[in-house]
Design goal:
The complex is a heterotrimer of chains A (257), B (263) and C (328). Chain A is built from eleven helices and no strands. By secondary structure, chain A is an all-alpha fold. Chain A has one domain. Helices cover 75% and strands 2% of the residues of chain B. Chain B contains twelve helices and two strands; from the N terminus they run ααββαααααααααα. Chain C is α/β, with parallel strands linked by helices and 328 residues long. Helix content of chain C is 33%, strand content 25%. In chain C, the strands form four sheets. In chain C, strands 6-7-8-5-9-10 form a six-stranded mixed sheet, sandwiched between helices. A four-stranded antiparallel sheet of chain C has the order 12-13-11-14, with helices on one face. Chain C has a two-stranded antiparallel ribbon with strand order 1-4. In chain C, helix 5 runs parallel beside helix 6. Classes of the chains: A mainly alpha (257), B mainly alpha (263), C alpha/beta (328). Chains A and B meet through helix 2 and helix 8 of A and helix 2, strand 1 and helix 9 of B.
Chain lengths: 257, 263, 328
């Protein structure tokens, strides 16, 4: 299957840069510790509601682990293909551009899962105790949530890549995406503790898919019914990605003349 | 023309080149402001929900944040080439700069300019609001103003020094972008908060190895908290001077080690 | 040494540069000796070609010459000064063009690049204007100097780059593949400009290129470098003589020729050898320093009635290739 081959080749190419990856993983460990330290500090003076200090540490550490599953490169690498003109060839392939770009990126994410998320999980488990859930159902729901999170991240990354056809500063969309994610996904703090207006904004955006939903399931604070919203977003984003491809086709045809 | 004059000319030319893509420039400035505000919001929301962390009020932490981010963006304004040094090593851009009859560091710094108006405005606003609040609560005296100016200067020097040292390490390892995630991004994220939150080893690291702690936390312990004596300010100045000297020394050795990307 | 200021000596003797090249693809570290032992001197006013296959150490040598790289051993002297220890004074006296990159400001008009460089080299207004007038005569860039550099053609950009490198009136011009990627017309133009700079403005030129036409048409002296060592230093004629002139002669016979069998062939040595054979067509190569084409044709005529003859002069590139890889 094309998707499998694309993903595998990406994993292989990522394997070649193991030294720089190790540095990134080390940085990630430290980032997670900084966020954990915030909650440990707050926990000294506040009982932290239904989570408690330990629960919040778990919440933050788990989010830092899964952060790497939804971490896509800028525009799924489409920007570079646009700049080098490779995009015209990509469009001529019998594989849909979205499948092509997403397949490659999926390989990259698989790499991140094995070589960053997994080590991070064990490191944090050793440092803070992540108290892995025992019920298989919880694992199953969490995995489903994560899959949808990965898929949504691919769709959004694809949209950003497509945007780079129209502006050379597309990188800022990428940064914008990450800072919105940072605030609205519940990465740093459970959504229900946010001020109402921000909660409303967050719930209207797809970002809770990335952290709030999977972390809620993993911690046993939410049930499988919370998977419905991510599922709807996946459908919506897929439609968006297909529409974006149509736009790309038209744009490249115009330019290529 | 003096070196200052030439730097000014180069700066103007960089801006002029940027303005060639006016629409992109406007878009970029707007998005950059949204990005910085969003990042601040992430932290502010947590602080707002709980009021204080380990005896540091929201306003005091806002002061830490404001000082750190102002120093960061002043550094980024003139040192964005240092901060993004990897392409210079990889694409052979440095070769061209070495052909100029100017001191290399000056040539590197003037080769790229980043417009940080939006970001600077945001961090100065946070800083201003927090200082005003602290003044009105009577927690600090107006002395905070000159003192803050002083630590903004030393903080920028420390930022620059760490950036320069990271870039200089690139002469040996070439791929410094990942390294700067550790020396710049992680440290910046940590120092937005009081260092007392962190485990000993991280605190030691941020005071002794990568002295970002001296940008805001150490002087703020005197200026805002009044817990440490006046010695913190001269010490901060000394740390800034020392880091700059060390970074320049490392840079000098690195340049001699430079291996251009050749055929 | 008479008038040291006039001669410029380059010598990189003994063990050259050790480049611990960090391979990007693996973490294995290798020590690469890009330049092993290089000794040469270039006199003022010369036009010297510096050639060699990829990875021979050309760029490394040039970069040491300009003060970009520090030699691990040995010394480079430009106008009696070390470009490493005195990088800035030397930079004022040499002009450098790297064909693969531009030193012009990409998004700004050419004019602005000149303004910046003039300030950087501290030219007065009148010096700058005078120099621009002179350079415009040689490179005629005024009609496109209001256009942003990114919109210039490769040939125009190179003229701009040359003018930028010459703005501070350096005595030595170092060119690293100035014609790379250009079409034949643009190349011809750049060559004419370079010739003018050398002959009329008296610039000393050191040129590296992969285009042998550049060398043939411009350089009176050629340095060939391979694996970090100088393997040839001399004039063009000498270079040709050194490896002979493998001329190819292609003969088409009316009918399939009758070639002598191997035994006879061995007993009767001829001044040519058969390079290829296809039905009625026979290709032989001979060395024209040893034999004349007419003699070869006469010998070929013994094997059948000749219908058509094509004589191919040796490709200069092939000659040089033969120097690079004498073993093959």
């Amino acid at each position: 299957m094309v998707l499998w081959i694309l993903a595998k080749s990406m994993v292989r190419s990522r394997l070649q840069y193991s030294a720089s990856h190790a540095v990134r993983t080390a940085a990630s460990v430290i980032f997670g510790m900084i966020y954990v330290a915030i909650w440990q500090g707050i926990g000294e003076q506040d009982p932290l509601g239904e989570y408690g200090t330990e629960g919040m540490v778990r919440y933050i550490a788990f989010n830092q682990v899964i952060l790497w599953l939804t971490f896509t490169q800028y525009g799924l690498g489409l920007e570079e293909r646009v700049r080098t003109g490779q995009i015209a060839l990509d469009l001529a392939r019998p594989v849909h551009l979205f499948v092509f770009a997403a397949g490659r990126e999926a390989g990259s994410i698989a790499y991140n899962a094995i070589f960053t998320a997994l080590p991070l999980f064990f490191i944090y488990d050793w440092m803070f105790g992540l108290a892995a859930p025992r019920e298989p159902a919880v694992w199953l729901w969490t995995a489903a949530a994560l899959l949808m999170a990965v898929y949504s991240a691919l769709c959004i990354g694809y949209g950003i890549g497509v945007a780079s056809l129209w502006t050379v500063e597309g990188r800022w969309f990428h940064l914008l995406n990450y800072s919105l994610n940072f605030v609205l996904s519940g990465f740093l703090m459970p959504l229900q503790w946010m001020p109402d207006w921000l909660q409303a904004v967050a719930c209207a955006s797809p970002y809770p898919i990335f952290h709030s939903v999977p972390a809620g399931l993993y911690m046993g604070k939410a049930g499988p019914d919370t998977l419905l919203v991510p599922f709807l977003w996946c459908l919506l984003l897929t439609a968006g990605a297909l529409a974006a491809t149509k736009l790309v086709r038209r744009k490249v045809e115009v330019q290529g003349g | 023309m003096t070196w200052m004059g030439i730097c000014w000319l180069l700066y103007k030319m960089n801006v002029k080149a940027r303005m060639q893509y006016r629409l992109n420039f406007v878009l970029m400035t707007m998005l950059a402001s949204v990005v910085t505000v969003a990042e601040f919001l992430g932290l502010a929301v947590v602080l707002n929900a709980f009021g204080s962390i380990k005896g540091w009020s929201v306003w005091e932490i806002g002061y830490l944040y404001g000082v750190l981010m102002t120093a960061k963006y002043v550094y980024r304004a003139f040192g964005s080439a240092i901060n993004n040094f990897e392409p210079y090593l990889v694409n052979g851009q440095l070769d061209q700069l070495l052909l100029r009859p100017m001191p290399l560091l000056l040539a590197v710094i003037t080769s790229r300019t980043r417009m940080v108006g939006g970001e600077l405005l945001q961090s100065l606003t946070v800083l201003g609001v927090c200082i005003a609040r602290l003044l009105s609560e009577g927690r600090v005296t107006p002395w905070i103003l000159p003192q803050t100016l002083f630590i903004l200067a030393t903080g920028t020097v420390i930022m620059f020094s760490v950036g320069l040292a990271t870039a200089a390490i690139g002469f040996w390892i070439t791929r410094v972008e990942d390294l700067s995630v550790l020396t710049d991004n992680a440290t910046t994220t940590a120092c937005q908060l009081p260092l007392s939150l962190f485990p000993d080893w991280l605190r030691t690291l941020l005071l002794a190895a990568i002295p970002f702690g001296f940008i805001n936390y150490v002087p703020a312990m005197h200026i805002v908290k009044g817990e440490w004596g006046g010695w913190t300010l001269p010490l901060t100045g000394a740390v800034a001077a020392l880091s700059l000297a060390a970074a320049l020394w490392l840079w000098r050795i690195g340049v001699a080690k430079y291996q251009s990307t050749g055929t | 040494m008479k008038g040291l200021a006039k001669t410029f000596r380059t010598s990189v003797p003994r063990e050259g540069r050790f480049g611990a090249v960090r391979s990007l693809l693996s973490r294995e570290k290798r020590t690469v000796q890009a330049v092993k032992r290089l000794d040469f001197a270039v006199e003022r006013g010369e036009f010297v070609g510096f050639i060699g296959p990829n990875g021979a150490g050309k760029s490394t040598t040039i970069k040491m010459l300009c003060g970009i790289l520090h030699p691990s051993e040995g010394e480079v002297l430009v106008f009696g000064r070390s470009p490493q220890r005195e990088r800035r004074p030397v930079a004022r006296r040499i002009g450098v063009v790297f064909g693969q990159r531009t030193q012009l400001w990409w998004d700004l008009p050419l004019k602005d690049s000149f303004a910046i460089l003039a300030a950087m080299f501290r030219l007065t207004r009148s010096e700058k204007e005078r120099q621009l007038d002179r350079l415009n005569e040689a490179l005629s860039f005024r009609d496109f100097w209001d256009t942003p550099v990114r919109k210039l053609s490769l040939g125009q950009r190179m003229r701009g780059d040359l003018a930028a490198a010459l703005l501070h009136d350096p005595e030595l011009l170092v060119l690293d593949e100035p014609t790379i990627g250009m079409d034949a017309g643009a190349k011809r133009q750049i060559r004419a400009h370079l010739k003018f700079l050398n002959e009329h403005l008296g610039k000393t030129v050191l040129l590296t290129t992969h285009d042998m036409n550049d060398i043939e048409q411009l350089c009176r002296r050629v340095l060939v470098i391979n694996r970090g060592e100088l393997i040839f230093d001399g004039g063009m004629a000498q270079l040709r003589g050194r490896i002979g002139m493998p001329t190819l002669i292609r003969v088409v016979y009316r009918r399939e020729p009758k070639l002598p069998d191997a035994e006879l062939w061995a007993s009767q040595p001829r001044p040519f050898r058969i390079a290829g054979r296809r039905e009625r067509e026979l290709t032989v190569s001979c060395n024209r320093t040893e034999t004349r084409v007419l003699d070869v044709l006469r010998a070929l005529g013994e094997w059948g009635e000749v219908d058509d003859v094509l004589v191919e002069e040796p490709d200069f590139e092939d000659i040089v290739h033969e120097i690079y890889e004498p073993a093959k």
